[in-house]
Design a protein that fits this description.
Helix content is 79%, strand content 0%. The protein has 23 helices and no strands. The radius of gyration is 23 Å and the shape is globular. Keywords: Membrane, Transmembrane, Transmembrane helix.
Length: 468
């Protein structure tokens, strides 16, 4: 019997994806079948988890049940049945977006771009700024997978293992990825915050990119003054190593890869934003569909359909199994948010928030980053935290400026990634670099994160003052 369980899960995920696409493209909706399939996936994911990993999903579904029982707004069966579909689009997003990594890993795009850019990466400022910026660009395609890829590249170019140099390398990657959550459209936490707030996509991307760029420059300032000896030693190493990159790749092939990457980036980013703006489709719906179109078109153009089939088989028969914890969390969060939406508890939460922000010196935008960081410190990832906080805010009767809400939430998300010693990003870098998780996160970033928070709040409060 156990032999059939994984196949039930595989086919359940495929049917879940298929029904979601049919609903959005054709308009044919089968909610009961979708709920049934979601329930099967959720139960399987929950059963296969370690006992410790089961606690959070179980806590949320118990809370959802209690909300239903004590508010009498909806019966408990309806909450569990219909709640499965509340976050269906975001679950599809986290299942489909990783497919875009097949394109980036198909050719030596990363090496080619760094090789092409070697003439501007020969100083410490330009090198570490470039690492932070390119980590963000690459996260459009690889999400958190951009971290080990960039780390490997930096490690090969700067082989020095001095603790100061290691900190510079790891902090530049960690900060680069975290700042990407302010504007990178395919990062689920960002796209979810845009959708739930109904913010202008172009405004928040430009706002986030400018804020990220300023934060990169500030990070360089912190590097210079906090890690002076390592910063001095990095000069000769970067000059020697970057000059050697130019001879590692054939120039004709390098130019081809750079052009292809730029076309892919412009097409993927541009088509996503255009469809969202012109057709008024939700961002969470557009991104998975554009991802599939890009992947199919790319491998057709490269005449590598056999490789595409191999990637697909490996992903859906192996990698999907590793997403059981993610799926169990998002389905349980989905049920919890639905329970809040159909009950009166949202009114009480809104009253508490209004009480907390009743002082003229405190407002919602000041509190949200702290809430995101708090959730990060108890082990929740950026997307889970965003879904919980953003979903609750969206379900409450609270006035807010959408673009400022997105900035407040994403700044909190970025700080959470940098500060939480149990965050996935910190754990990944700590494992490969042998720098302690607490050292890499809280100890190395608290002053930098304080600046980011204060800078964002000055901007938000100025805009609020002007708008009032």
């Amino acid at each position: 019997m156990n032999f059939y369980f994984p196949f039930i899960f595989y086919y359940g995920v495929l049917l879940f994806l298929l029904l979601n696409f049919i609903e959005h493209i054709v308009g044919f909706n089968l909610p009961n079948l979708q709920s049934l399939i979601s329930l099967v996936i959720f139960c399987y994911a929950l059963i296969t988890l370690r006992i410790r990993a089961k606690l959070f999903p179980i806590l949320l579904i118990v809370l959802a049940g209690l909300i239903s029982l004590f508010t009498n707004q909806a019966n408990i069966w309806e909450v569990y049945w219909m709640g499965m579909l509340e976050l269906a689009d975001i679950i599809v997003l986290i299942l489909i977006v990783p497919l875009i990594s097949w394109i980036i890993l198909h050719e030596k795009y990363i090496d080619s771009i760094f090789s092409k850019a070697s003439f501007i990466l020969k100083t410490r400022v330009s090198y570490f700024s470039g690492v932070m910026l390119f980590t963000q660009v690459l996260s459009h395609f690889l999400l958190i997978g951009s971290i080990p890829l960039i780390y490997q590249f930096v490690k090969e170019n700067i082989k020095e293992t001095h603790i100061g140099i290691e900190k510079l390398k790891n902090l530049s990657i960690l900060r680069g990825f975290s700042l990407g959550t302010l504007w990178v459209v395919t990062i689920p936490s960002f796209s979810y915050s845009v959708q739930t707030s109904n913010a202008s996509i172009l405004t928040v991307i430009i706002q986030g990119f400018i804020f990220s760029s300023i934060s990169i420059l500030v990070s360089i300032y912190f590097f210079v003054h906090k890690y002076q000896s390592a910063w001095v030693n990095a000069a000769s190493m970067i000059d020697n190593k970057i000059s050697s990159i130019e001879h590692q790749i054939d120039k004709g092939y390098m130019n081809k890869c750079v052009k292809e990457f730029l076309l892919l980036f412009i097409f993927f980013f541009g088509v996503t934003v255009l469809i969202h703006l012109l057709l008024d489709w939700d961002l969470l719906v557009v991104i998975p569909q554009v991802t599939i179109i890009c992947v199919l078109a790319y491998f057709l153009f490269k005449k590598s359909l056999i490789l595409l089939m191999s990637h697909s088989k490996h992903y859906f028969l192996n990698d999907i199994m590793r997403k059981n914890e993610e799926l169990s969390i998002y389905f349980s969060v989905s049920i919890f948010i639905y329970a809040v939406q159909v009950s009166d508890i949202g009114i009480y939460i809104a009253d508490v928030l209004n009480l907390l922000t009743s002082s003229p010196l405190i407002n919602l935008y000041m509190l949200l980053p702290f809430l995101m960081v708090l959730l990060g410190f108890v082990g929740l990832g950026p997307l889970t935290s965003m879904v919980l906080v953003g979903g609750l805010i969206n379900s409450l009767s609270i006035d807010f400026i959408p673009e400022l809400l997105v900035l407040s939430l994403t700044v909190g998300s970025a700080i959470s990634i940098m500060m939480s010693p149990i965050g996935v990003s910190v754990i990944m870098l700590s494992t490969v670099s042998n720098i302690g998780k607490l050292e890499l996160s809280l100890k190395s970033n608290y002053t930098y994160c304080l600046f980011i928070y204060l800078f964002s709040q000055v901007y938000i409060q100025v805009i609020l003052t002007i708008s009032n």
